[in-house]
Amino acid sequence: MHLIQVDSVQRWMEDLKLMTDCECMCILQSKPISIEKDEQNELILSSQHSTCDNLQLLLKRAWIISTELTRIAQKLEKNRWQRVHSLTVRVNCHVRSMINEYNMFTRNSSEEMHQFEKLVIDKCSEFTAFTERCVQTEDEQVLKSMKSCINETLTTVAQHFGQLIELVLTHEAQNLLRQIELSDNVYITESAISSLFSLTQEGAHLCRIIAKEGGVAALFKICRQDCFRCLYPQTLRTLASICCVEEGMHQLEKADGILCLADILTDSTHSEATHAEAAAVIAQITSPHLTFTQHLSSFLENMEEIVTALVKLCQEASSGEVFLLASAALANITFFDTMACEILLQLNAMKILLAACSDRHIVDTPYSRDQVVTILANMSVLDQCASEIIQGNGVQLLMEMLFERSSSGHSAEVAACERVQQKSAVTLARLSRDPEVADAAVKLSCIPRLVKLCRSPTERNNSDSVLVACLVALRRLAAMSPDGLEDSDFQQLVKPRLVDSFLLCTNMEESFV
Asked: Could you tell me which residue ranges the Protein inscuteable homologue LGN-binding domain spans (predicted)?
C-alpha cells in the first residue's frame, strides 16, 4: 500500500507542473504576463537540459491533450455542457502552452509548421467560443442543433492537432538525423543517437517517421566508420527498435544493412557488447511474428556467416543477456529458413547449446530456455539430430523442461514457461521416431510426466497448446513402448481420437479433497 501511495504522489508531482500552468493560463485568459524574454522564460515548464527532455515533455503534453479531447467527446455524449466547456478551455490552454514551449527550444521551424500552429490555435479558440455559447443557453432545441456542430469542430481540432504533432516529430527527427549525418564529434553524435533511441521507445508511429526520414541509412553509416566504434552498441540498439516496423525493414534492405551486420558479427575485434546488439538486430528482423520478412533476400546470401558468428557468440557468451540475444537470433533464423538447421548441425550447435543449458549463469531464465528448445524443436526434423541429442544428454534436458515453472508469477514469465513445456514435448514427439531416443525417454520416466501434464491443468497452467503437444508426444512414446502406460491412461489418452482425448482432459476438474 505504501508503494502505491508513493507512486501516486510521484505521478501527481510530475503532472502538477503541467496542470498548474494550465490553471494559471485559464485565470489569465491565455494572456502572456510579460513580453520580456527573461520573464517569459520563467513561464516555460520544460527544462533546457537536452532535446530528449524537451521532446519527452512535448509528448507528455500531447498525451494530456489527446486524453482531454477524448473526455470532451464523452461529456458531450452525456450533454454535460458545463463540463464540456471547462475541458475545452483546458485544452485551449494546453495547446497554447505546448506551442509556446516547443517554440522556445526548437530550431529552424518551417513556415508550414507556423501556419499549422496558428490554425490549431484558431480552431481551439473557435471551439471554446462554441462551447461557451452552449453554457449560456438553456434552450434544449438550440443545444441539440449545436451539438452536431460541436462534434464536427471537435473532430477538426483533433485532426489538426494530430497533423501538428506529426509535423513536430518529423521536424525533430530530421534535426537529430542531420546531427548524426553531419557531425564528426563523438559526443554530439552520441547525444543525438540517444535522443533518437528515446523517440523509438514512444511507439511504432515514431519508428515509422524516423525510418521515412532516412534514420536507418544514417545509423548504418555510423556503423561503417571506425571513429564511431564506441557508439556501435547504442547505434545498433536504436536500429533494432526502428526495424520493428515495415518501413524500417525496407530501409535496412536498401542500405545493405544485412551485409553490415554480417561484417560486424564476423569481426573479432569488436566488443562482445557490439556483437550482442548486432545479434539483437538480427533477432528483430527475422522475428517469426513479423509478416514482412520475405523481402530480405540478401539475408540468405549471408546466412551461413551470420549463423556461424551467432553460434560462436552463444559458445563464448559471458552473461545470460548476451546468450539470450544470440540464441534468440538463431531461434528466429531456424524459422526463417530450413537450411539454417543443416548449418547448425554442421557447426555442432546442438552440443554447444546443450552444454550452455548446464551452466545456470548463462541459461538463467525461462526466456533463454525458450530460445534453446525452439532451436532443438526446429532441428529435430532432421534425422541426424537424434544421435546428437543422445550424445549431449539432450533427452534429460527435455525431461527437465517439462517441469518448467515460473518463480515470479509474472504473466510474461508464465507464458515463457508454457512455451518451454510445449516445445520440449514437441521435440520429444519428433525425436521419438528414433527407437534409441524413445527408449531413453521411457527410462527417464517421461511418460508419467506427460500423463501428469495431460491430466492436471495446473501443471500446464491450463494451457491448451501444452496439452496438445503432450498428447502427441505421449502417443508417439506409447507406440514405441506400450508397456510404459497404465491401462486407464491408454484408454483415455492414447486410444481415442486426439480431439476426444483433448476434450476429456480440458473438462477434467482436479479434486481438492
From this structure: 4-49
**Average pLDDT of the segment spanning 427-447:** 91
Residue 507 one-letter amino acid: N
Burial of 204 (0-12, 13-18, 19+ CB in 10 A): middle
CB 406 within 8 A of CB 414: yes
Query: What is the domain range of residue 161?
Result: 50-169
Spatial contact of 213 and 174, defined as CB atoms under 8 Å apart: yes
99 in a domain, yes or no? yes
Counting runs of H as helices and runs of E as strands, what totals does the chain give?
26, 0
Helix axes 339-346, 366-379, angle to 10 degrees: 100
Buried-state track 477-497, b at ≥16 Cβ within 10 A, e below 16: bbebbeebbeeebeebbbeee
In a domain, 101, yes or no: yes
Domain ends where: 144, 169, 194? 169
- The number of distinct structural domains making up the chain is 2
Angle at 282 between CA 289 and CA 185, to 5 degrees: 130
Asked if the structure places residue 344 within a domain, the reply is no
As a whole number of angstroms, the distance between CA 500 and CA 268 comes to 55
Residue 275 falls inside a structural domain: no
Q: Which long-range contacts (CB under 8 A, 24 or more apart) does 1-4 make?
A: none
Hey, is 83 helix, strand or coil?
helix
pLDDT tens track for 196-255: 998 898 889 999 999 999 999 999 999 999 999 999 999 999 999 999 999 999 999 999
Q: Give the model confidence (pLDDT) of 61-95 as tens digits.
A: 888 888 988 898 888 888 888 888 888 899 888 88
Distance CA 231, CA 313 (A): 20
For the chain, the straight-line distance linking the first and the last C-alpha, in angstroms and rounded, comes to: 35
pTM attached to this predicted model: 0.80
Q: At residue 24, does pLDDT exceed 50?
A: no
- Rounded CA separation 506/500 (Å): 10
Q: Which of 149, 169, 189 is the last residue of a domain?
A: 169
List the grid coordinates of 345. Answer: 548441425
